């Protein structure tokens, strides 16, 4: 079993680690685009071309499924990637977990990139899945970049700024960018101070997309299996290794089979 994941950078680590935990026997293929990142400021057409390049590089190695582990790429490029690769390779997109966050009927904050915050795409998800629920969209400028480069000072600064924009009575927090899941502990700490230690519910997408990828190929979770799965890394189509910044996160060290030093934000 081989499952590919794609993103502009290391935001794919969260879903890759979730897949590794669910199926230790699966071979993982991580295809990112350091030559073309960040994708966020690009036009939808330009972003889609970068996504196609990264997806084609992964598809050439014949994975059983491809996870688009990037919210922005899923918004703009998912239909194109599916048209090009399916039915041969199932393509699974990443959607902010607004539906499960709103299901309890609490007060929801959605942390997302500035490009996604207030976008028709996100507003549509809120309309469809959070009608009647109080939702606050929280832009997090610079947070994804800080996570990408493992910049602890910038992570602390940008998380603190987003926490200040989050209502103190919030009950549920959606991590609406795959990078944010890598620093969930830092976000939890900042919001605990903001909310007086309230027991908030956090909603990411990593495990959900991993489960969906397995379902699409007729498999299921089997975390008890021995870890026999390999790891292949492509950087803009070139064989490579995990970047140094990835090893600053627990997810990256899990994928590398290492565990040294404290994870940024963990």
TrEMBL record:
Swiss-Prot/TrEMBL GO biological process terms: peptidoglycan biosynthetic process
PROSITE patterns documented for this protein: ASP_GLU_RACEMASE_1
Sorted UniProt keywords: Isomerase
InterPro entries, per the entry: Asp/Glu/hydantoin_racemase (IPR015942), Asp/Glu_race (IPR001920), Asp/Glu_racemase_AS_1 (IPR018187)
Protein origin, superkingdom: Bacteria
GO molecular function: glutamate racemase activity
Pfam families: Asp_Glu_race
Annotated protein name in UniProt: Glutamate racemase
């Amino acid at each position: 079993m081989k499952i590919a994941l794609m993103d502009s950078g290391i935001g794919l680590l969260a879903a890759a680690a979730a897949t590794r935990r669910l199926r230790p026997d699966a071979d993982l293929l991580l295809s990112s685009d350091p030559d073309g990142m960040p994708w966020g400021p690009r036009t939808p057409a330009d972003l889609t071309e970068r996504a196609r390049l990264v997806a084609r590089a992964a598809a050439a190695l014949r994975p059983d499924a491809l996870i688009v582990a990037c919210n922005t790429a899923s918004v703009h490029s998912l239909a194109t990637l599916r048209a090009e690769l399916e039915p041969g390779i199932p393509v699974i997109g990443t959607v902010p977990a607004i539906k499960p966050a709103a299901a309890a009927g609490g007060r929801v904050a959605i942390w997302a990139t500035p490009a996604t915050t207030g976008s028709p795409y996100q507003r549509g998800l809120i309309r469809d899945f959070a009608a009647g629920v109080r939702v606050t969209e929280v832009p997090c400028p610079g947070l994804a970049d800080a996570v990408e480069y493992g910049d602890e000072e910038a992570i602390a600064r940008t998380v603190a700024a987003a926490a200040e924009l989050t209502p103190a009575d919030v009950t549920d927090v959606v991590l609406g960018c795959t990078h944010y899941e890598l620093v969930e502990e830092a976000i939890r700490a900042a919001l605990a101070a903001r909310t007086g230690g309230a027991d908030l519910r956090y909603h990411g997408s990593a495990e959900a997309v991993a489960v969906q990828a397995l379902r699409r190929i007729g498999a299921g979770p089997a975390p008890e299996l021995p870890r026999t799965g390999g790891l292949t890394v492509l950087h803009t189509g070139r064989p490579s290794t995990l970047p140094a910044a990835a090893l600053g996160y627990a997810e990256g060290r899990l994928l590398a089979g290492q565990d040294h030093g404290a994870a940024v934000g963990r």
